[in-house]
Amino acid sequence: PTSRPTSRPSISTIESPTESPSFSAQLPTERPTERPTERPTFDTDYNDPCLSDPKRRHRRPWHLLSDEEKDEFVNAVKDLNDKISDGSVTMNDDFASSHDQIFGGQAHGYSAFLPWHRYYLWEFEEVIRTQFPDKYPCFTIPYWDITYENVASNENEPWYILSDEARLGGTGNCVESPFSSSEYNSVVHGCLRRDGCNPFGASATCDSLLNEAQFYDFIAQRPRYGTSGFCDSGSRWNQRGGFRYDIENNGRFHPAMHCNIGGSGQLCTGVSPYDPIFWLLHSFIDFSYAFWQTCHGYDLVNPYNHAEFSCCAAQSSNPAGSQCCTDAIEYCGADVVSHIEADIQLPILDNVPWTSFPTNEYKTFKHVYDLQSLSISYDYGDFDATTVQGICGRTLNESW
After folding, report:
1. For residue 238, what are the contacts with CB-CB under 8 A and spacing of at least 6?
2. Strands (E), the chain
3. CB 11 within 8 Å of CB 343
């Protein structure tokens, strides 16, 4: 392309495909009827995590990675920041600018917040894998387990993610290595800036993030994705209630992850993906989304069967034997079929030859509902499977 698009495309709908999506793996032809009884065993070989399936992405917590594994993620992001997209603009710049262009649109403040970011992370992984097939054939975004911040941090070093151990450059008007201005810079976004606040003691300038017990409560106490009164308030930002709204806006979750760490830097702005912590942050948001889906049984919803979403369209309680994954009212009158059939929007990235998006047939919201269709899975990390089973009343989906 020789120029950037001047406006965002509008949401459109497409007809249902006759075949299952082929993002990375075919969806199962039959939905599971019961829960597995054992914890997943994905974490048996970290040296080659996609040995058995080259498209697989098994995401693990950042604090449990070795220094070599952390450095591989860091180097991959830096390499993408050196890869030219157009003129002096890099591919990494385009990812950040895409998020910025749709910041007040489909990606935030709507039902699409969670599935949109799920696809966005998948596309980032896909680009690095395809641009650097010899160096990063199995590139996978780890997740930043925010509950670990309440275990590892203290008043002298308030954020683990900004510590030397985390190896992400810390804070500063231009952060330190490995993302110092001489190693990581941009004609569009400048050097990387962070200004973390202090959540501890009498001198605290911000709230801490959720601890493990609070995280479990957050997941368990919000069985609905949205609330029926969402549009009655006259503003999509004001109506509280529902898992999607609360995870996006809760002052100790998503916004705090951005701004308590980023401060006046890029992480607290529309170009937040320019900060590599963004990817770890939203990987945890997606981990939480998957956790919530399977905790409440929504992983059993077949996104290709519109009838299974019908309870949402009517804003009624779930009828016996049916599950409801999203509230159509969050689109302020749009029916649920329009929601699940809506195209994902990726400004800029939809108009360059180096992403899969322009030619990817499977890019509506229903195509990213099932993690298995994207070959994504998450490691439990420090979360205890027995505790999870007690809270959810079931074992989490083994494939997820």
Report:
1. none
2. 57-59, 84-86, 89-90, 376-378
3. yes
**155 vs 158: CA distance, rounded Å:** 5
> Helix axis angle, 277-295 relative to 212-220, nearest 10°?
50
Asked if the bond preceding 178 is cis, omega within 30° of 0, the reply is: yes
- What is the distance in angstroms between the CA of the first residue and the CA of the last residue of the chain? 37
pTM over 0.90: no
> Mapping DSSP to helix (H, G, I), strand (E, B) and coil, where does residue 172 land?
strand
The 10s digit of each residue's pLDDT in 220-247 is 988 877 755 444 333 343 345 678 888 9
Instruction: List the one residue out of 80, 71, 236 whose CA is nearest residue 169.
Output: 71
What DSSP string describes 367-400?
A: GGS-GGGGTEEE--TTS-HHHHHHHHTSPPPTT-
Of the candidate ranges 99-108, 110-119, 186-195, 303-312, the one whose mean pLDDT is the lowest = 303-312
Residue-wise pLDDT for 46-72, tens only, equals 445 576 778 889 999 999 999 999 999
Give residue for tokens 């002298």: 156
- pLDDT surpasses 60 at 314: no
DSSP 194-220: B-----SSTT--SPPPP-HHHHHHHHH
Is residue 49 helix, strand or coil?
coil
Asked if residue 17 has pLDDT above 70, the reply is no
Distance (Å, whole) CA 339 – CA 13: 8
pLDDT score recorded for residue 232: 38
When pLDDT is cut at 50, 70 and 90, the band that residue 365 belongs to is: confident
Q: Is residue 159 exposed (0-12), middle (13-18) or buried (19+ Cβ within 10 Å)?
A: buried
- Give φ, ψ of 207 to 5 degrees: -80, 155
Residues 313 and 324 sit within 8 Å (Cβ to Cβ): no
Bridge partners (DSSP) of residue 90 are: 84
Place of tokens 């992403």: 355
Q: Are strands 84-86 and 89-90 parallel, antiparallel or unpaired?
A: antiparallel
